[in-house]
Write a structure and sequence with these properties.
With 181 residues, the protein is α/β, with parallel strands linked by helices. It is 33% helix and 26% strand. The protein has 7 helices and 10 strands. A 6-stranded parallel β-sheet has the order 4-3-1-7-8-9, with helices on both faces. Strands 2-10 form a two-stranded antiparallel sheet. The protein has a two-stranded antiparallel sheet with strand order 5-6. Residues 1-6 and 176-181 have low confidence and may be disordered.
Protein backbone atom coordinates (compact mmCIF):
# COMPACT_ATOMS: atom_id res chain seq x y z
CA UNK A 1 0.00 0.00 0.00
CA UNK A 2 1.29 3.37 -0.99
CA UNK A 3 2.02 6.26 1.33
CA UNK A 4 2.34 8.83 -1.47
CA UNK A 5 -0.65 10.18 -3.34
CA UNK A 6 1.14 10.38 -6.70
CA UNK A 7 2.26 6.73 -6.54
CA UNK A 8 -1.23 5.32 -6.08
CA UNK A 9 -3.20 4.86 -9.32
CA UNK A 10 -6.47 5.02 -7.34
CA UNK A 11 -5.75 8.65 -6.44
CA UNK A 12 -6.09 11.33 -9.08
CA UNK A 13 -6.46 15.14 -9.15
CA UNK A 14 -10.17 15.11 -10.00
CA UNK A 15 -11.14 13.21 -6.86
CA UNK A 16 -13.25 14.97 -4.24
CA UNK A 17 -11.93 14.08 -0.80
CA UNK A 18 -13.38 14.25 2.70
CA UNK A 19 -11.18 13.82 5.76
CA UNK A 20 -12.71 12.64 9.04
CA UNK A 21 -10.43 12.88 12.08
CA UNK A 22 -10.98 10.97 15.33
CA UNK A 23 -8.94 13.39 17.45
CA UNK A 24 -9.10 11.39 20.70
CA UNK A 25 -7.85 8.21 19.02
CA UNK A 26 -4.98 10.03 17.35
CA UNK A 27 -4.08 12.10 20.41
CA UNK A 28 -3.74 9.10 22.72
CA UNK A 29 -1.91 7.01 20.12
CA UNK A 30 0.69 9.74 19.55
CA UNK A 31 1.01 10.45 23.26
CA UNK A 32 1.45 6.80 24.24
CA UNK A 33 3.74 5.83 21.36
CA UNK A 34 5.88 8.94 21.00
CA UNK A 35 5.11 11.35 23.83
CA UNK A 36 4.19 13.93 21.20
CA UNK A 37 1.19 15.66 19.66
CA UNK A 38 -0.28 15.09 16.22
CA UNK A 39 0.25 17.52 13.35
CA UNK A 40 -3.26 17.34 11.92
CA UNK A 41 -2.54 19.96 9.25
CA UNK A 42 0.22 17.83 7.77
CA UNK A 43 -1.95 14.71 7.86
CA UNK A 44 -4.73 16.44 5.92
CA UNK A 45 -2.26 17.90 3.44
CA UNK A 46 -0.46 14.58 2.84
CA UNK A 47 -3.64 12.53 2.58
CA UNK A 48 -5.35 14.92 0.18
CA UNK A 49 -2.24 15.53 -1.94
CA UNK A 50 -3.13 17.09 -5.28
CA UNK A 51 -6.80 16.11 -5.02
CA UNK A 52 -9.75 18.40 -4.17
CA UNK A 53 -10.45 18.75 -0.46
CA UNK A 54 -14.19 19.14 0.05
CA UNK A 55 -14.35 18.88 3.85
CA UNK A 56 -11.95 18.15 6.69
CA UNK A 57 -13.69 17.58 10.01
CA UNK A 58 -12.08 16.94 13.39
CA UNK A 59 -14.21 15.38 16.12
CA UNK A 60 -13.19 16.92 19.43
CA UNK A 61 -14.17 16.94 23.08
CA UNK A 62 -14.89 20.08 25.09
CA UNK A 63 -14.06 20.14 28.82
CA UNK A 64 -15.32 22.45 31.54
CA UNK A 65 -11.91 24.12 31.83
CA UNK A 66 -11.94 24.97 28.10
CA UNK A 67 -8.15 24.43 27.98
CA UNK A 68 -8.62 22.95 24.51
CA UNK A 69 -9.94 26.18 22.91
CA UNK A 70 -6.52 27.23 21.46
CA UNK A 71 -6.29 23.76 19.86
CA UNK A 72 -9.76 24.15 18.32
CA UNK A 73 -8.76 27.57 17.00
CA UNK A 74 -5.56 26.11 15.51
CA UNK A 75 -7.61 23.46 13.69
CA UNK A 76 -9.93 26.16 12.35
CA UNK A 77 -6.95 28.18 11.12
CA UNK A 78 -5.75 25.08 9.25
CA UNK A 79 -9.10 24.86 7.46
CA UNK A 80 -10.29 21.93 9.57
CA UNK A 81 -13.86 22.16 10.87
CA UNK A 82 -14.54 20.98 14.39
CA UNK A 83 -17.48 19.04 15.69
CA UNK A 84 -17.52 19.53 19.44
CA UNK A 85 -19.04 17.42 22.17
CA UNK A 86 -18.95 17.95 25.92
CA UNK A 87 -16.99 15.49 28.03
CA UNK A 88 -19.45 13.36 29.96
CA UNK A 89 -18.55 12.70 33.59
CA UNK A 90 -20.57 9.97 35.26
CA UNK A 91 -21.19 9.41 38.97
CA UNK A 92 -18.16 7.58 40.27
CA UNK A 93 -15.80 9.65 38.11
CA UNK A 94 -15.89 7.69 34.85
CA UNK A 95 -15.46 9.92 31.81
CA UNK A 96 -16.61 9.35 28.27
CA UNK A 97 -16.11 11.24 25.06
CA UNK A 98 -16.98 9.06 22.12
CA UNK A 99 -17.48 10.42 18.61
CA UNK A 100 -17.70 7.10 16.72
CA UNK A 101 -21.38 7.45 15.83
CA UNK A 102 -21.15 11.15 14.95
CA UNK A 103 -18.16 10.63 12.67
CA UNK A 104 -19.86 7.63 11.04
CA UNK A 105 -23.10 9.52 10.37
CA UNK A 106 -21.21 12.48 8.86
CA UNK A 107 -19.10 10.22 6.63
CA UNK A 108 -22.20 8.44 5.32
CA UNK A 109 -24.13 11.70 4.92
CA UNK A 110 -21.32 13.43 3.02
CA UNK A 111 -20.28 10.37 0.98
CA UNK A 112 -22.59 11.32 -1.90
CA UNK A 113 -20.47 14.41 -2.61
CA UNK A 114 -17.11 12.63 -2.21
CA UNK A 115 -15.07 10.18 -4.27
CA UNK A 116 -12.64 9.30 -1.50
CA UNK A 117 -13.08 9.25 2.26
CA UNK A 118 -10.03 9.52 4.50
CA UNK A 119 -10.50 8.16 8.00
CA UNK A 120 -7.85 9.43 10.39
CA UNK A 121 -8.16 6.81 13.14
CA UNK A 122 -6.96 3.31 13.89
CA UNK A 123 -10.11 2.37 15.81
CA UNK A 124 -11.46 -1.01 14.76
CA UNK A 125 -14.98 0.17 15.61
CA UNK A 126 -14.94 1.93 12.23
CA UNK A 127 -14.67 -1.35 10.29
CA UNK A 128 -18.44 -1.45 9.51
CA UNK A 129 -18.19 2.15 8.23
CA UNK A 130 -15.26 1.29 5.95
CA UNK A 131 -17.09 -1.74 4.57
CA UNK A 132 -20.34 0.16 4.09
CA UNK A 133 -18.70 3.07 2.26
CA UNK A 134 -16.83 0.69 -0.04
CA UNK A 135 -19.49 -1.90 -0.77
CA UNK A 136 -22.76 0.05 -0.52
CA UNK A 137 -21.57 3.46 -1.67
CA UNK A 138 -18.70 2.47 -3.96
CA UNK A 139 -16.33 4.91 -2.26
CA UNK A 140 -12.60 4.70 -1.96
CA UNK A 141 -11.72 4.57 1.74
CA UNK A 142 -8.25 5.46 2.95
CA UNK A 143 -7.00 5.24 6.52
CA UNK A 144 -4.20 7.22 8.14
CA UNK A 145 -3.12 6.20 11.64
CA UNK A 146 -0.22 4.93 13.70
CA UNK A 147 0.34 1.33 12.64
CA UNK A 148 1.11 0.03 16.12
CA UNK A 149 -2.30 1.14 17.43
CA UNK A 150 -4.40 0.45 14.33
CA UNK A 151 -6.81 -2.44 13.96
CA UNK A 152 -5.34 -5.00 11.57
CA UNK A 153 -8.80 -5.46 10.02
CA UNK A 154 -9.04 -1.74 9.21
CA UNK A 155 -5.61 -1.92 7.56
CA UNK A 156 -6.71 -4.94 5.49
CA UNK A 157 -10.04 -3.45 4.41
CA UNK A 158 -8.88 0.07 3.56
CA UNK A 159 -8.15 0.85 -0.08
CA UNK A 160 -5.00 2.57 1.16
CA UNK A 161 -3.35 2.71 4.58
CA UNK A 162 -0.78 5.32 5.55
CA UNK A 163 1.21 4.41 8.66
CA UNK A 164 1.95 7.77 10.29
CA UNK A 165 4.61 6.08 12.46
CA UNK A 166 6.81 5.72 9.39
CA UNK A 167 7.27 9.49 9.18
CA UNK A 168 7.01 10.94 12.69
CA UNK A 169 8.90 14.10 11.73
CA UNK A 170 6.06 15.03 9.41
CA UNK A 171 3.08 13.88 11.44
CA UNK A 172 4.11 14.72 15.04
CA UNK A 173 4.92 17.94 16.86
CA UNK A 174 6.49 18.84 20.21
CA UNK A 175 6.77 16.87 23.40
CA UNK A 176 9.45 14.49 24.54
CA UNK A 177 11.03 11.90 22.31
CA UNK A 178 9.66 8.49 23.22
CA UNK A 179 9.19 5.32 21.23
CA UNK A 180 10.40 4.58 17.72
CA UNK A 181 11.59 7.31 15.40
Amino acid sequence: MSTQTNNNPLKHPDQRVGVFIDVQNMYYSAKNLFGKKVNFGNIVSEMVGDRKLIRAIAYVVRTESQDELPFFEALYNLGIETREKDLQIYPGGNKKADWDVGLTVDAIRLAQSLDAIVLVSGDGDYLPLVEYLQKSSGKQVEVAAFGQTTSSRIIEEADDFVDLSENPGTFLIGGSSKGKK
